[in-house]
UniProtKB/TrEMBL annotation:
The chain crosses the membrane at residues 29-51, 63-86, 98-115, 121-142, 149-170, 182-208, 220-237, 243-260, 272-296, 302-320, 340-359, 365-383. Keywords: Membrane, Transmembrane, Transmembrane helix. The keyword Coiled coil does not apply. It comes from the Bacteria. It comes from Rhodocyclus tenuis. This is Uncharacterized protein involved in response to NO. It holds the Pfam family NnrS. InterPro entries: NnrS (IPR010266).
Amino acid sequence: MAFISIDELTAKRIPPETFSLFALGFRPFFLLAALFGALAVPVWALVWALVLAGVVSTPLPGLWWHAHEMIFGFAAAVIVGFLFTAGKAWTGQQTPTGQLLAALAALWIAGRLAMALGDGVWVALVDAAFLPVCAAIFVGLLVRSRNKVNYFIGGLLSVLGLLNLGFHLARLHVLAVDPLSVLHFALCLIVLLETIIAGRVVPMFTLSAIRGVRQWRNKAFDYAAIACTGVALVLWAGDAGPWAAAVAVLAALLQIARTLGWNTWATRKNPLLWVLHVSHLWIPLGLLLLAAAQWQLLPRSAGIHALAIGATGGLIIGMITRTALGHTGRWLVAGPVETIAYALVHLAALTRVLTIAAIPAAASGGVHLAATLWALAFLLYFWRYRPFLTRARLDGKPG
């Protein structure tokens, strides 16, 4: 006989139709990121192709705006939403909800509007405020709960905020550095954060979902793969020269062995799992492409888009579906809509990388096709998950 706790008997269930957009961090930020990603990328593609010349313009060079907004707009929203959700479980303390969470979402929106419409110091102040505020809240949770194992994640979030500030100082000519180089370092930091967190959760998800699955894991090997990847990315972003390509190749080999050790093949029939495995495999592929670029065999953008679309976009679409399903009281099962969205993101990555690396004559078409596939994927997410994220959990629990 199962015992029912007093808390379970007396807890008040939240009606399923209750508006709950600001009940937990993942809800507004996942929804905003999906909508923004679906709109910003095709708009950028049309601006790049001069289709919207004179209709849509930004004070920044188009490439800077595109890269900045995908990193500090789209990806940053997902990271904050994930950490505010996971942080509650990690620390046992309440993360922002209600009016505070709504204010943070409004601050993020203000940053996007400022970057699209304005210029000058005020844009830097508005846009650069979001990440430091979120980092301060998250680090405060860790410190109060003495959750030392995750201090480094709080540190990475803080550094990401500093890089955004560095970008603005560079574009305002306060720092004598190339703003695009700052954006490259920011992408590297996000990829490093992805491979650290994926190394924790992807094998665990696989073990819990597939009974009897065999895996090979080694903590020292994991640390070596992560450290080598971090060094390779920093050397690339710092333009250390062709010799740094050897480090990138070594990091790629370590990451391939690490990912396959999680038993990628066993996940082939489970979209909620294979999307994470395949997405993580874009990290070693991106490292190999960056190595080829350092040897002047390929354009740098091939590796950049492998990491930005394949790894980052793929892990994001996988995690924002899984997190939303689990934290709204639903079964952890990817249906046809989710599976199509996963495939679209990876097809976007494949299209963009192949047309850069192997079919340069089709590069222009590749931009538009990849942008369309990407936008469709995140529009599907927004359409499917908007009701889930704006209403209460199915089980009536808070969050």
